Amino acid sequence: MSKTIHVPHLGGISAAYALSGEYDPSKPTCVLANSMCMTTALYKDQFDDAKLTAAVNLLAIEPLGHGSTSSATEHFTYWDSAIMALQVMDALGIQKAFALGTSQGGWIVARMALLAPERILGLVLLGTSMDYESADSRSKGCWDPVPLLKPFFTGWTSDTTRPDFVVEDAWCTMVGSVGFGAFATEERVGFWTKTLQEVYRGDEGRKKVRMALNCLLERDGLLMRLGDVKCPVYWLQGTEDTPFGTIVPAEQILLFTRSKEASLEMVAGGAHYLNATHPGPVNEALLRMVEKYGGTE
Length: 297
Hints:
This is Alpha/Beta hydrolase protein. The protein has twelve helices and nine strands. By secondary structure, the chain is α/β, with parallel strands linked by helices.
């Protein structure tokens, strides 16, 4: 169950977050940023790992446009979600942290490391790409989401309020199938369909999901900025990652030229939401990073 805390960015944000237990300042902390339309519940397997939570405080934060997070303004970008997450750390008295992001969460935590390099101790990137859906990335096996997703954006655009809005079953099913791949069980898809239709309901819900999708479709790439990331980077990619494949991560990890350490691990059979389909190697990678690079305040 997430809580909310007020932070000042964008004229005021009610930021939703979940902690793995009572915050322990003697342990390092890892911020977790979830994938498209997911909530803190995406990290259930991390929160349930007793070895992991004994070693590190897990702080899952729902980005703008997601879960119980709400803002005073309708428009925002991934940079805004990164600033918001840093302000959540401020509000909770956390000076430094590691950061792990799944899919779009990877874009958010990378931005956190660029905005506050002195505060982010290391990055764990899962099932992601540091580019936008450029022609180059599409030629190397990444998806082209615009033809598939823009019709949803158009349908969610309205000049009148729509209090009866509920995000479509088709959207929920697609999010589940793209994210979980072969692991998109009936139970898992059912849970996330129910969750998404609770979050994206009414006119405020319509605006949230519309802008969350706009962020994805119109985001900027980070390729020329990656050399400015100096903290260690562990990138894990599933071999069955549908949106971003395996070619682009192998090329982009080499762009972290000034990181203390930058490594890529391909996870056999892993789907896009790798922390959920293959939590074992993900949790082990985070533990390795925390043990190697410390981070206690």
